[in-house]
Amino acid sequence: xxxxxxxxIIPVKDDGIYAVKLLKSLRKDPYENLxxxxxxxxxxxxxxxxxxxxxxxxxxxNVHLFRQEHEGTYAARNLxxxxxSGEYIIFLDPNDDIDKNFITALMLTTINGDQTxxxxxxxxxxxxxxxxxxxxxxxxxxKPKETTKFYRERLFKKDDRLHFLNNKLxxxxxxxxxxxxxxxxxxxxxxxSELKFIKKYVKLGDIENFVTINKPLYxxxxxxxxxxx
Length: 229
Fold this sequence. Notes:
globular; Spore Coat Polysaccharide Biosynthesis Protein SpsA, Chain A; nine-stranded mixed β-sheet
């Protein structure tokens, strides 16, 4: 039985070297049914060529590269969703890294077929300093409709991992059926574009269960990579 296709969406802007390193990490994961979508957000260097050349040299037919004029990471992710064909979607940033079992671990959570949001723990890495962001497994029990929002908000405040985009596995159907988009960031907003997207996804998908993997499989190397304009 063929495994579900997973779309990996990666915005790139002048960081082709890191994009190739991330691509090498993705290749180590045992999960093979992937389409890897790079969106070049108006790079002024040779990032696109680095990605193309590596894909050609390694004969990677599942790597796709699209270019847009510089609009920002939010727009690049939206274009990536448009171009994707996978049943599941993972968003990554080229400046960060993943454990070799990152995708495999996330996909194992889909075996039951439940409509869930799956996520891993995070390893924050700043130079030689490393910090694990781990919690025990959390499940949001079903509540009456009038209280569901309250419990969801409480869980978002309790678990910092929910504020990150790239440690998660999303169901493509929820995103596309509801035409869910990343919004252009606005100055002085308390919530990031990523957090808004996650909250809308949870609400629109009527998701009651958050499946968590209590291992730091997503490696956050540069906090600034999540704030690129």
